[in-house]
Design brief:
The chain is mostly helical. 78% of the residues lie in helices and 0% in strands. The radius of gyration is 18 Å and the shape is globular.
Length: 264
């Protein structure tokens, strides 16, 4: 993989991880355009590095929230921070179960399946439109809501369904305040990404060579910088802007991907 391809993939991952347009779907489309011929292990390493970068950008943006939560946990009391952490744990359960029990089936969904990606992007567009029309209320995230949002996150493992789009849309449809929905959506994925990274690294399936150092570094920096920008921007957008523009974008890209599948 060239440094230019790594730069583009890093920018795509950084932007689309937080914007509700599906990072996995866009990465699949980009790899298809580049004619990615790397072996699965090399491709997995780049994926791990890019996800590490966006996880770090999330930690950077929410550093104050995370620090307060950690301080609250070390008080060893049943306080607000402990309750919030437990809700995060509950939200992780569906995706963790799916990731462990259906690992091979999930991997089979990736690898240039443009028809699947295009179809799921249209599903994302429908979700965003529904959320945009939902009545705005100020409900809080309960344990039950955390589980439902977690199920949305598990479904969003499918390439083309936006994780942030699915979880934020689900939260808004449940009546949760938009700013709380965005905060919970972004924070709930951090431990899941870190856990998945640790699993991939410890499994020994990842192949690394010194020749990959520069592309990996460029991809990491690009994903981190654009991730910080996109995360901050998305928080602001969720509070006051319409999600219909993202829905339109997903619909257009999804339709193009589907049409290309049939005419190629």
């Amino acid at each position: 993989m060239s440094w230019i391809e790594a730069l583009v993939l890093g920018i795509i991952q950084g932007l689309t991880e937080f914007l509700p347009v599906s990072s996995s779907g866009h990465l699949e489309i980009a790899k298809f355009i580049f004619g990615d011929t790397s072996v699965p292990e090399e491709s997995m390493l780049m994926t791990v590095v890019l996800h590490a970068a966006t996880a770090l950008s999330t930690i950077f943006v929410f550093r104050k929230d995370i620090a307060e939560t950690i301080r609250g946990l070390f008080q060893f009391k049943w306080n607000e921070e402990t309750i919030f952490s437990l809700k995060i744990v509950v939200s992780m359960i569906p995706a963790a179960i799916v990731g462990v029990l259906f690992k091979d089936e999930i991997e089979s969904l990736f690898g240039g399946r443009l028809l699947l990606v295009g179809s799921m992007l249209i599903v994302t567009a429908i979700l965003l439109l529904m959320a945009d029309k939902a009545k705005i209320t100020d409900k809080k995230v309960t344990y039950w809501y955390a589980l439902i949002i977690g199920i949305s996150q598990a479904i969003a493992i499918t390439p083309g369904i936006s994780r942030s789009g699915a979880t934020i849309s689900t939260s808004v449809l449940l009546g949760i305040d938009r700013s709380k929905a965005a905060r919970f959506s972004f924070l709930m994925v951090v431990p899941l990404i870190l856990g998945a990274m640790a699993k991939d690294i410890l499994s020994g399936d990842i192949v690394y060579s010194s020749a990959q150092m520069i592309p990996l570094g460029i991809g990491f920096v690009a994903a981190f910088i654009t991730g910080v920008f996109a995360c901050t921007w998305m928080i602001s957008l969720v509070k006051k802007a319409s999600l219909s523009w993202f829905a339109l974008y997903c619909f257009v890209i999804g339709t193009i991907a589907i049409i290309y599948t049939f005419i190629a």
